[in-house]
Amino acid sequence: MAAAPAAAGSGAGRGRRAAATVAAWGGWGGRPRPGNILLQLRQGQLTGRGLVRAVQFTETFLTERDKQSKWSGIPQLLLKLYASSHLHSDFIECQNILKEISPLLSMEAMAFVTEERKLTQETTYPNTYIFDLFGGVDLLVEILMRPTISIRGQKLKISDEMSKDCLSILYNTCVCTEGVTKRLAEKNDFVIFLFTLMTSKKTFLQTATLIEDILGVKKEMIRLDEVPNLSSLVSNFDQQQLANFCRILAVTISEMDTGNDDKHTLLAKNAQQKKSLSLGPSAAEINQAALLSIPGFVERLCKLATRKVSESTGTASFLQELEEWYTWLDNALVLDALMRVANEESEHNQGASEENGLPHTSTRTQLPQSMKIMHEIMYKLEVLYVLCVLLMGRQRNQVHRMIAEFKLIPGLNNLFDKLIWRKHSASALVLHGHNQNCDCSPDITLKIQFLRLLQSFSDHHENKYLLLNNQELNELSAISLKANIPEVEAVLNTDRSLVCDGKRGLLTRLLQVMKKEPAESSFRFWQARAVESFLRGTTSYADQMFLLKRGLLEHILYCIVDSECKSRDVLQSYFDLLGELMKFNVDAFKRFNKYINTDAKFQVFLKQINSSLVDSNMLVRCVTLSLDRFENQVDMKVAEVLSECRLLAYISQVPTQMSFLFRLINIIHVQTLTQENVSCLNTSLVILMLARRKERLPLYLRLLQRMEHSKKYPGFLLNNFHNLLRFWQQHYLHKDKDSTCLENSSCISFSYWKETVSILLNPDRQSPSALVSYIEEPYMDIDRDFTEE
């Protein structure tokens, strides 16, 4: 007999098992030989021919075989289940048989998930595997879908209790037996049908969990507009069900990621976009539109995201739901963890009470509050994710308007201290298989999801001022008035009834926790990204000063210089934020010079910049642009900064600019351009555009040529740059590309960007500003196809 099958998640894959099966299988006919019965069943399952179900055997044979193989009587039970589940059955006997099968699989699945399974002998097969092998999965799918069949105009019905048993058995089999979930995912009509089972509260949780697992492995994304009566289904969910439904929505509204790094290159993305234009909207976009068409959908999500723990489900119904969760394996682990938290809290409170001579509260009364807090965190995770994806979709402006109208931002502001950024207890929840510093823990994931939402909400949108309260908006107006500059129009247009209330707005609260964050914290990256998104777009002096007055620049410099941050992701986010904070702002450069007040500190700062230009090039760009503007201003304050600031003096030197330019061009190639490093190409263009303004473009190109020769590799840099600029034209001159980001970040008109690229790509070798004029004929290689490796 063959060795026992590998469990789902182990190293042995379905393909390897299938290959072994094909090699061992010698065909079948007549009475099957006991030695190869399981191999024949597996082959039948893969091919759809031959032995595929228990009904193809006699009960006598199965009983005899079971004595030797210890199959726990599962094949015989399936034989009875098949006989009792015909169309005219009342399903009473069918349900009794399911009750016998269920515990045989659930205990095994619980042991599998909790990693407590013991090593089995080679002759022992898991119950879930035997159940699937003898056709149990396909039979349960047929039973569940009986209501889709009509007899004499009447649809068949099965009870909710029976549906729950079927769903539970299917889920347990998916957990333990590799390939089952994928096979179910291929049954598109079954997946669509499962949504209809969510209309009943009794089967909702089991159905939602199974759907989530199936959609997680489905190759093609399901279309929600194919779900019967989707709008009615979702509208009838209570808030608890809607929150759980968001777990499913997270899979259906996010663009599928193939996991292939090549797909993330701009070349691949552009090719995919061209393909998408001919195919129409993606399934994810269709699903987003379907959800937004449901009346009150976004409003209900905003209410879920902002409700307080005290407003959530009452204790009785909450505990009832958790009792159901306990029967569902992945959630049982959460419940166990919560029980541990509650017990630790109880022991702590009991000890404190005894010291004070006070009566202590029992664990039973302690438990619900601990559980309800984590329960609410788990819900908000899913809801915030869905809102975040919708904010980044095609209907962004529509979603923005609704989120503002339903006061999501002030609601989150009110939850910030008590829930979102609450202080951790000594017994902070740690899920099974993780540690308390793991990014998968609910507390940490909620914070990251919250920061991602703020980033999406603020990015290039005037609604970002809803992150402030009335007093802080007045402060922005006062800054503009003092500087004798016009108020930002978006500030004037902000609806004051929709902004944050309380002593501090959400942005200020974020700055406070950001400055207290430990050096090694994983939150630093997301915090910096969220604050930077508030500054993106057209540079606002008032916005910059609002953040400067709260010590943000000094905090960033401390992290870069004094803590000597090593994380590349955090450094990149801090450099990007620093660039937006300092751009064109004389006061910011004065503060920089005051903090970086020694040569030693400045050298550490430069070392961090030069360690990775992919990470720091946005700061280099902002300082270069600021220097250009300051040099063209007649102002004593500006003149003082120009004469004193180490950073401006460093960037003003032509050798420094050439060093940056050479390295920026050299670290990127058309085939490796991504959304992350394309900024290096645009920063190199900024340096050359400013040189062109000063009629120094030929000088810079000649210096690049000399640097090439000094490296003993003439032509390698300028050929590469020529190809990069050709790609730039294809990428940015496409009708779907938004050029305003380049304009806003540089304050250089997009027409000047296009003109400069055209001048550099001029094929006339007599032009002093054309790249080809500086590439010697033997080394010319400018017409390479972008798709070449």
UniProtKB/TrEMBL annotation:
| Region Disordered: start-end pairs | 345-364
- Recite the UniProt keywords alphabetically: Receptor
A molecular function GO annotation: phosphatase binding
Q: Which GO terms describe its cellular component?
A: Cul4A-RING E3 ubiquitin ligase complex
Q: Which GO terms describe its biological process?
A: ubiquitin-dependent protein catabolic process
Q: Where is the composition biased (Polar residues)?
A: 349-364
Protein name (Swiss-Prot/TrEMBL):
Short transient receptor potential channel 4-associated protein isoform X2
